[in-house]
Amino acid sequence: MKSSNDWLEYPPFTVGGLGTHCYGLTRSLCNMGVKVDFYMPQTKHGATSDNRNLVIKEVGETTVFLMIVLKAAKLLVSFLKLFLVIIH
C-alpha cells in the first residue's frame, strides 16, 4: 500500500500539535509497511527520514509560520464576529 500526505509540519519543523500528530500518524503507517510520500513546504532546515518507507518531498519555499499566523488571525476574527452576534 502507498500513501501520499500533504501537511505543513513535520519534524524538525513543527509549530505545535499538528506536527506531533503528523509525525505519529506517518511513523505508524510506515511501521505497518505502508510506503508514504510526505509532501511539505521547503524549509531552511531540510527534512530527512530515517525510515525506509518514508520519503519526504519538500516542495516550494515558503514561510510556514506566517501562513499559520494569518490563518489563526482569520479564525480569531470569525470567532469575534460570532461572539458579537451572540451577545448583541
Distance between the termini: 53 Å
From the alpha-carbon coordinates, what is the Rg to the nearest angstrom?
17 Å
The global form is: elongated
Physical arrangement of strands within the biggest beta sheet: 1-2-3
Strand content is: 15-25%
Helix content: 40-55%
Q: Strand count, sense and closure of the main sheet?
A: 3 strands, parallel
- Total number of helices: 2
Stretches with pLDDT under 50, minimum 5 residues: none
Q: What's the total count of β strands?
A: 3
**Average predicted confidence as pLDDT:** 76
What structural class do helix, strand and pairing data support? Answer: alpha/beta
Question: Helix and strand string, N-terminal first?
Answer: EHEEH
Textual characterization of the structure:
The chain has 88 residues and is an alpha/beta fold. It has a domain of 61 residues. It is built from 2 helices and 3 strands; from the N terminus they run βαββα. Strands 1-2-3 form a 3-stranded parallel beta sheet, with helices on one face.
Structure in a nutshell:
The chain has 88 residues and is an alpha/beta fold. It is built from 2 helices and 3 strands; from the N terminus they run βαββα.
